[in-house]
DNA sequence: CCCCGGGGTGAGCGGGCGCTTAGGAAGTCG
DNA sequence: CGACTTCCTAAGCGCCCGCTCACCCCGGGG
């Protein structure tokens, strides 16, 4: 059940091999049961190692969560920034941003679940670092919406509120998306891109 | 910081007094740290009692979560059903449903957080019961959207998908809403009611 | 007056937790 | 070959968890 294909692609640059196996095992376990309900013995077991092996590669269980969180947030931020800086009208860029962001949350919903819902378990200092990344995420989307309003393409009375809502909608995909369900990540991305345009009051031609 | 005013209103019919204090203490603790990170000693302490007192009123810590979950889900379902069955056009009813549902998630965001994000910690049988309630929740909103489409008031290509998205948007309010933030529950409800109408393609007159 | 039962406590049980430590197998280089 | 490094394990420490049990306090009925 664990195997999820391209899942491992995100962690390709984690070395050595044992450290990568541990981080992917941790993602699966945290996503399934939550950080606090996951034991270090469980993570090590999934990675095919003894409990003590975890501490050769990571100082604490929390460090594993932190690494996962950082990588995931940076990836998500990259996706949104790439869309923000792409060519095309604000509508094109918002549509692209939501489509890719949602597709990532659906495809990698195990990673995304950990990234979006286990923040509270981070140590104070690590949490602060993550919060900064999340502010950048918000800023990237807001920039697109503001562009659309300035260009007269969007009719958005409350830009910060609507930005928050669009992001919230996308993030929540990680909570409900089920790989065995009837919707593919591409389909959800397409649907959500359309919904986001509706939310910002984009008038179709 | 714990005091949240009308918070306790939801638990008014829990007796005796000690059982009510325990359930409200559990809501606060679960919302703050999550079910698994909360100890029975913490719950009892917040309620001003010894750890053993908890077990006079509840068989296990999980039973507390289950009670909270049931009460919260029934309340949420009532809110949506009342809106579904109210007088007015589908647009009025969807707007009312989202406004009230969101307001509840914002006002009682501690309860809502537990209700929406700690499901996974429930025992198998309790989980199944809750899932049934959640299906009813979805059905209530979908009924309104279908009415709007049938009446030609909404332009909604994907009714189940859009229903899911509207509910997902509302539920996620419990995750990000902060009582110290700058938006009141009423304001968020108003904004979200408008966004939901946009999502279903309601043409303003 | 005593007794009784429901709400409460202090002490503590068995167990699983995060993490550590002493040491061993396998490769590599002089 | 022996010394060193890298990666790993078996065993287990100290702690705190969910939960239990023997006992206590106190208001009300005979």
TrEMBL record, chains A, B:
GO terms for molecular function: DNA-binding transcription factor activity; transcription cis-regulatory region binding. Coiled coil: none annotated. Keywords: DNA-binding. Residues 16-76 form the HTH tetR-type domain. Pfam families: TetR_C_24, TetR_N. Gene3D superfamilies: Tetracycline Repressor, domain 2. The keyword Ribosomal protein does not apply. It comes from the Bacteria. InterPro entries: Homeodomain-like_sf, HTH-type_TetR-like_transc_reg, HTH_TetR, KstR2_TetR_C, Tet_transcr_reg_TetR-rel_C_sf. Residues 39-58 bind DNA. This is TetR family transcriptional regulator.
């Amino acid at each position: 059940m664990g195997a999820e294909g391209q899942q491992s692609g995100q962690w390709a640059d984690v070395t050595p091999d044992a450290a990568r196996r541990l981080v992917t095992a941790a993602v699966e376990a945290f996503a399934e049961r939550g950080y606090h309900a996951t034991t270090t013995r469980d993570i090590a077991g999934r990675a095919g190692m003894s409990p003590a092996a975890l501490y050769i590669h990571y100082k604490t269980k929390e460090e594993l969560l932190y690494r996962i969180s950082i990588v995931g947030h940076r990836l998500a931020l990259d996706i949104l920034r790439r869309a923000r800086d792409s060519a095309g009208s604000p509508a094109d860029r918002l549509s692209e941003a939501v489509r890719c962001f949602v597709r990532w949350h659906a495809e990698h919903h195990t990673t995304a679940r950990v990234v979006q819902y286990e923040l509270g378990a981070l140590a104070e200092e690590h949490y602060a670092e993550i919060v900064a990344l999340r502010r950048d995420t918000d800023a990237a989307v807001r920039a697109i919406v503001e562009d659309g309003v300035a260009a007269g393409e969007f009719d958005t009375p409350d830009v910060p509120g609507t930005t928050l809502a669009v992001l919230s909608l996308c993030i929540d995909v990680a909570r409900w998306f089920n790989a065995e369900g009837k919707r593919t990540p591409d389909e959800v991305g397409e649907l959500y891109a359309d919904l986001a345009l509706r939310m910002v009051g984009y008038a179709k031609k």
